[in-house]
Design brief:
Strand content: 15-25%
CATH class: Alpha Beta
CATH topology: Rossmann fold
Number of helices: 7
Largest sheet: 6 strands, mixed
Order of helices and strands: EHEHEEEEHHEHEHHE
Shape: globular
Number of domains: 1
Length: 209
């Protein structure tokens, strides 16, 4: 997993979340970097094959045209930014046989309303070649968002499909008296798994399935 971090987030909560993920995944399966511009985000996510491309950032809507954006430092990443990545050959399929799950852990990152003129789901999957997207449909608190994603990634790491992992996340948070798990929406096949599946001969292909 490669994790792009918005340096504008609460630094204490960010470091705790990053440390928990680092313990869960360990090197070389996990890399993270604070990105203060969209170019560094693109470079981090495509520089090596990953199963999960994790964007941990603020999410919002432009006051000028209502377009959704992801915040990294003082720069905003819009759905149209992904079109530029495609032109510059900075998409996942340009550099790797793996189509990663893209996690957009910020406020309202996959929200759809009657006023939505563009969205990240279509652009991440169609333009950048991801296997799917998971994000939020409402405003979320940073600490809770980090906790929720640690549970989800932990379930995926242990072999659960994404559908199973999301269901387990919802139950786990509900047992704690928190319904934040229902704020996350999965846009891909629920049976998607990550790792190195085996062929009929038991040989690893080294791809997600």
């Amino acid at each position: 997993m490669a994790m792009a971090i918005d340096p504008g987030l609460n630094p204490d909560l960010t470091e705790r979340h990053r440390a928990n993920l680092s313990t869960l995944l360990q090197k070389p399966d996990f890399t993270s970097e604070k990105c203060d511009d969209t170019a560094s985000v693109a470079t981090l996510l495509v520089e090596r094959p990953v199963d999960v491309a994790y964007l941990y950032c603020h999410g919002g809507y432009s006051t000028d045209d209502g377009l959704p954006f992801l915040q990294f430092g003082n720069r905003k990443l819009y759905p149209s930014t992904l079109g530029a990545w495609r032109t510059e050959r900075l998409t996942f399929t340009d550099h790797s046989p793996i189509q990663p799950l893209v996690v957009l852990n910020g406020c309202g990152t996959v929200e759809f309303t009657t006023h939505t003129l563009a969205n990240f789901v279509d652009d991440v999957v169609v333009r950048c070649g991801a296997a799917g997207v998971i994000g939020t449909e409402i405003t979320i608190e940073q600490g809770v968002a980090g906790c929720a994603m640690e549970h989800l990634i932990g379930n995926v790491r242990s072999g659960s499909s994404l559908g199973e992992a999301l269901r387990n996340l919802r139950w786990e948070m509900a047992r704690r008296g928190n319904t934040i798990g229902f704020a996350y929406a999965l846009h891909c096949m629920s049976g998607l798994r990550f790792g190195a599946p085996t062929t009929a001969r038991g040989e690893s292909e080294g791809r997600n399935d």
